[in-house]
Design a protein that fits this description.
The structure holds two protein chains of two kinds.
Chain A (H helix, E strand, L loop, with lengths): L4 E4 L3 H8 L5 E4 L5 H7 L6 E4 L8 E3 L5 E4 L4 H6 L1 H6 L1 H8 L4 H6 L2 H6 L50 H7 L3 E6 L2 E6 H4 L18 E7 L8 E7 L7 E12 L2 E10 L6 E2 L1 H7 L6 H12 L10 H22 L1
Parallel strand pairs in A: 1-3, 2-3
Antiparallel strand pairs in A: 4-5, 5-8, 6-7, 6-8, 9-10, 10-11, 11-12
Helix pairs in contact in A: 5-8, 10-11, 11-12
Chain B lengths: L5 E8 L2 E8 L4 H8 L18 E4 L2 E4 L12 E3 L12 H8 L9 H16 L21 H7 L10 H23 L1
Parallel strand pairs in B: 1-5
Antiparallel strand pairs in B: 1-2, 3-4, 3-5
The chains are: A alpha+beta, B alpha+beta.
C-alpha cells in the first residue's frame, strides 16, 4: 500500500477544503470498500480525509413526509430506523440483504452509493480494465462475465454496480445532496450515475471534490407496500446475481401505482420505467407482471454466459409483484 | 500542516488506554496483534470477507482488518481478551465451550465477538434479512436458528462447526434474556 497523509474533518466545509482539488485525495467513510481497494492497489490515494465523524449521522423527517438520511448514517442504523421500516420496508430489506452485520456497522450511506464494482478484472491490477485504466480493454466481454451486465452496458465495460441499498433508493426517487467549495448541490439518483459509453472510468455526475452529504427520500405512500428480493449464489453474505425492489398499490384489482428497480444487471441501480409504464393502470395479474418484465428486458443484451439473468429477472419480477398484489388483496 | 504518513493515536482497548505511533497504513487488526500483543483477534482473509478479525468498536461488531488504526483514535475497542469477567467466562464463551462451538478454534474469537453483538442487536429489536415483517409494529422476531444463521453469516468457519455455533449462540441469547428479566423483576 502506498503511504498516505490522513486528516480528520470536523465539519463539512472543512472536509471539502481538506480534500481541495487534489485528484490523489479520497474521502474515507466506513472504509469497507476503499481500504480493501487500497490493499489491492486499485486505489492509491496520497491523502485520506476522514469524514466518519462529521455531523451527518442523522435520519430526520424531511417535512413533507419524506426522510432526510445523512451521508455518514451507517447501513445498520438505516436498516433499523423505525420510519424506514414502516414507510420504505424494501429499503430496510435491501440494506439487510447486503454484506454482513460487521460491514453494515461500518459502511455508510454515502459510501454505499460510491462503492466500486466487484468485477474481478477491476479488482486485479495485473489485468486490463477500462474502468481502472482507460483504454486498456475489457477482458470480461470475452472472459469471466456470468455475473455481468445485461442492460445499459457497452463494449468498453460490462461491470455491474454492487449496491443493494441503491436499488431501493432508486425505486423511491431518492435525491443525493452534496457539497463542493462552491456550495450545495443535488442530483436525483436517476441522474447520479453516468451512462457507461466509452468512459466507464467516469462513474458519477458529482463535480470534482464533491462530498456526498446525504440522501433525501421524497414521500411515497406506495413504498409502504414494498419488497426487496435478492438472488445470490449462496444463502447469505454474497453480492446479488439479480435483485428487484418493487412497490405496488392496487385498487379493485388494478395497479394504481408501481415502482420497480433492478440490481446487479447494469452499471447502476436500474429503474425499470418501461415496466412501470406497462403496470400502471393494468390488471394486477401475473400475466401483466410478466408483460411488464418483458417490456423492460426487451432492451437486454446478454453476453454468452449471463443470458440466465434475463429469465431470472423476469421470474423475480413476476414473483415479487404477485406477492405484493396478494398482500394488497388480503 | 505538512503531509505526514504516521500519527499518534490513543486506543481504549478492553478498558485500558494505549497510546502509540502508527503508520497510517496500519489496520486496527495489525495494531492489536503486532503492536499490542493482543493475538486473540485473528487474521483470516484480511479483506473483510471471513469475520475472523471481528472486534467490538464503540460496542458495535467491526472487522478490524478494514478499520484503520488511525481512524480508531479515542474509540473503545473490545477484543475477545476483554469479554470475560476475571476468571468467569462471558456467557457466549462458556456456551461455545460447553456445546463444542468450534473445531480448530481459529475463527472462534471472531465468532464469539460477533455473537455477543448479535445478541445485543437482537435485543435492541434489529430485524435481519430473514425477518418476515420488518415493520417496527411487528416487534423483534424470535431468535430462531434461521435468524442466528443469517445474523452470523459474516463469520466463516472452515471446520464447519456451524451446527454447534448456532446452538451456542441460541443458549447464550436465552441466558441473556433470562438475566435481563431477572434484573428487571
Amino acid at each position: 500500500m502506498r503511504e498516505f497523509d490522513y486528516r480528520r474533518a470536523d465539519d463539512v466545509s472543512g472536509a471539502v477544503a481538506l480534500l481541495g482539488d487534489d485528484p490523489d485525495a479520497r474521502y474515507l467513510g466506513g472504509g469497507t470498500n476503499l481500504v480493501d481497494l487500497m490493499k489491492n492497489g486499485v486505489e492509491r490515494p496520497a491523502r485520506l480525509v476522514d469524514v466518519r465523524g462529521l455531523p451527518l449521522d442523522r435520519i430526520e423527517p424531511a417535512g413533507d413526509g419524506g426522510l432526510r438520511i445523512g451521508a455518514t448514517v451507517t447501513n445498520s442504523d438505516l436498516a433499523a430506523h423505525p420510519g424506514v421500516r414502516r414507510n420504505y420496508p424494501a429499503l430496510t430489506q435491501a440494506v439487510l440483504a447486503g454484506a454482513s452485520g460487521q460491514l453494515r456497522n461500518m459502511a455508510t450511506v454515502g459510501g454505499n452509493l460510491l462503492q466500486r464494482t466487484r468485477c474481478g478484472y477491476f479488482t486485479d491490477v495485473t489485468k486490463p480494465c477500462n474502468k481502472r485504466r482507460p483504454g486498456s480493454g475489457c477482458p470480461a466481454v470475452e472472459g469471466e462475465h456470468h455475473n455481468h451486465a445485461i442492460l445499459g452496458a457497452s463494449d468498453h465495460c460490462v461491470a455491474v454496480h454492487p449496491s443493494d441499498m441503491g436499488v431501493a433508493l432508486t425505486a423511491f426517487d431518492a435525491v443525493v445532496t452534496y457539497r463542493t467549495a462552491d456550495g450545495e448541490g443535488e442530483l436525483p439518483l436517476a441522474d447520479f450515475y453516468l451512462p457507461v459509453g466509452d468512459t466507464p472510468h467516469r462513474e458519477t455526475a458529482l463535480p470534482p471534490g464533491a462530498l456526498v452529504t446525504g440522501v433525501t427520500l421524497p414521500p411515497a405512500p406506495v413504498a409502504a407496500r414494498s419488497r426487496y428480493r435478492k438472488v445470490r449464489e449462496r444463502a447469505s453474505y454474497a453480492f446479488a446475481i439479480g435483485s428487484v425492489a418493487a412497490a405496488l398499490d392496487v385498487g379493485g384489482g388494478v395497479v394504481r401505482e408501481a415502482r420497480l428497480a433492478f440490481g446487479a444487471v447494469a452499471s447502476r441501480p436500474w429503474r425499470a420505467r418501461a415496466a412501470e409504464a406497462v403496470l400502471n393502470g393494468a390488471p394486477a395479474t401475473a400475466e401483466f407482471f410478466a408483460a411488464a418484465a418483458d417490456a423492460e428486458l426487451a432492451a437486454a443484451r446478454p453476453l454468452p454466459d449471463n443470458g440466465y439473468k434475463v429469465t431470472l429477472m423476469r421470474n423475480l419480477v413476476v414473483a415479487v409483484l404477485s406477492e405484493l398484489a396478494e398482500e394488497a388483496a388480503r | 500542516m505538512a503531509p505526514s504518513t504516521s500519527s499518534t493515536v490513543t486506543l481504549n482497548i478492553n478498558g485500558e488506554k494505549h497510546t502509540l505511533s502508527v503508520d497510517h497504513r496500519t489496520t486496527l487488526l495489525d495494531a492489536l496483534r503486532e503492536r499490542l500483543d493482543l493475538t486473540g483477534t485473528k487474521k483470516g482473509c484480511d479483506h473483510g470477507q471471513c469475520g475472523a478479525c471481528t472486534v467490538l468498536v464503540d460496542g458495535r461488531r467491526t472487522v478490524s482488518c478494514l478499520q484503520l488504526a488511525v481512524a480508531s483514535d479515542q474509540r473503545e475497542v473490545t477484543t475477545v481478551e476483554g469479554l470475560a469477567d476475571g476468571d468467569r467466562l462471558h456467557p457466549v464463551q462458556q456456551a461455545f465451550l460447553d456445546l463444542d462451538g468450534f473445531q480448530c478454534g481459529y475463527c472462534t474469537p471472531g465468532q464469539i465477538c460477533s455473537a455477543v453483538a448479535v445478541i445485543e442487536e437482537h435485543a435492541a429489536g434489529w430485524p435481519s434479512a430473514v425477518t418476515g415483517d420488518v415493520s417496527p409494529e411487528a416487534g423483534p422476531p424470535p431468535l430462531t436458528p434461521e435468524e442466528i444463521r443469517e445474523r452470523m453469516s459474516g463469520n466463516l468457519c472452515r471446520c464447519s462447526a456451524y451446527v454447534q455455533i448456532v446452538e451456542a449462540v441460541s443458549r447464550a441469547a436465552a441466558e441473556n434474556r433470562t438475566g435481563t428479566e431477572e434484573a428487571a423483576a
